[in-house]
Amino acid sequence: MIVERRDGSLWMLARTGNGIMESTSDDGGRTWSPPTPSKIKHPVARFHVRRLASGRILLVKHGEAIDRHEGRSQLTAWLSDDEGKTWSAPVRLIDWWG
User: Fold this and answer.
1) Which of 22, 32, 41, 55 has a CA that sits 20 to 30 A from residue 9's CA?
2) Secondary structure of the chain in the HEC alphabet?
């Protein structure tokens, strides 16, 4: 998933077999930085990130912590006011018992 930052750069978060990897582009997506492991920890499952109309970034993923892999558990949402550097307190959306 790709989010355009306020400075015009692109921030990509990708689901991989090794967790979420991230990369950035400063030229509209023509070239990308080498992928690096994200500080956002997540199982090999879908997640969602997007910029809201308010300008904040919304992240929805499994678990109750940004920096811990907790398996496919609680589906939780966070907001960021600083382009994903820090995140709000988690808001649990649903429990996953699958």
Assistant:
1) 41
2) CEEECCCCCEEEEEEECCEEEEEEECCCCCCCCCCEECCCCCCCCCCEEEECCCCCEEEEEECCCCCCCCCCCCEEEEEECCCCCCCCCCEEEECCCC
